[in-house]
């Protein structure tokens, strides 16, 4: 988990930000600051307003009301100036599949008015950063999913942005590819790039984010570092016990006092406790014999599910 955050002035400031579609507020009055050099996360279920917020920051979607300041600029009034300082990694790779890897970087850089001589050097630097030097002349459609994602991130850095927006950067990647991307993103943060990301992976948020907001139905449910959110909204440990699908609810009635909070799920019972092993001993002392038991540390996923619920949202 990232623990060091530089004290810095905000490069992004949102105040009472609203985005309405008809009678529905996709973003409903949220406020937050993102200091320079921070890795800031937006977490929430599908439809919570995360991507909408990212589009407003990027200046490609106009806000309905509220204030939004990006490095002292209004993205609606000064869109080109704002975008000159931004790098954007969309949910889906939108690389030019017909072009070679290096050409994707150079042609994209031309949209920023950058010279060919500068782009030739910059493309080589970014290919090395993305660990794609040996793929420079390969066609994009021959790359693996992880390689394409690294190329998309490399392309987003062609204009040397101060802020990098990443919308679910590792969705669909295998664990090895995810860890490579985490390393690349952490290196960017070490160089002073401000990262703003959305993700559905709670372990990713814990690894990458200095601070985050949990958003649901367009509103902020909680804000803080991953460690702060876990301390505030969960216990230190979680005991998972299974008594059998048809017995979990009945057994849970006998678990009062074994932890700070009890949650009954269809397949197991969660006991939130400061000491999971002690809670398990108490359960066994009451004559209960779970089929399986597991003690683990509380995670950001526990916080997320408590704040946003466990039901599926399409």
Report on the architecture of this protein.
It is a single chain. The chain is α/β, with parallel strands linked by helices and 314 residues long. The chain folds into 2 domains: 10-225, 3-Layer(aba) Sandwich (Rossmann fold), CATH 3.40.50; 232-308, 2-Layer Sandwich (Alpha-Beta Plaits), CATH 3.30.70. 33% of the residues lie in helices and 26% in strands. The protein contains 11 helices and 13 strands. The protein has helices spanning 50-57, 79-83, 101-110, 116-129, 145-156, 175-190, 202-208, 226-233, 248-252, 276-285, 300-308; strands spanning 10-21, 24-35, 39-43, 65-70, 86-89, 163-167, 194-198, 211-216, 219-224, 237-242, 261-264, 269-273, 292-297. It has a 6-stranded mixed beta sheet, sandwiched between helices. Strands 11-12-10-13 form a 4-stranded antiparallel beta sheet. A hairpin with a 4-residue loop joins strand 11 and strand 12 (269-273). Helix 3 (101-110) packs across helix 4 (116-129) and helix 8 (226-233) crosses helix 11. It starts with 9 loop residues before the first strand and ends in a 6-residue tail after the last helix. The model is unreliable at 1-6 (pLDDT under 50).
CATH superfamily name of the largest domain? P-loop containing nucleotide triphosphate hydrolases
Structural class, please?
alpha/beta
Mean pLDDT reading: 91
How many domains comprise the coordinates?
Answer: 2
The CATH class of the largest domain, by name, is Alpha Beta
| CATH architecture name of the largest domain | 3-Layer(aba) Sandwich
Measured as a percent range, the helix fraction is 25-40%
- In angstroms, what is the radius of gyration? 23 Å
Beta strand count: 13
The unreliable regions are 1-6
Outline: globular
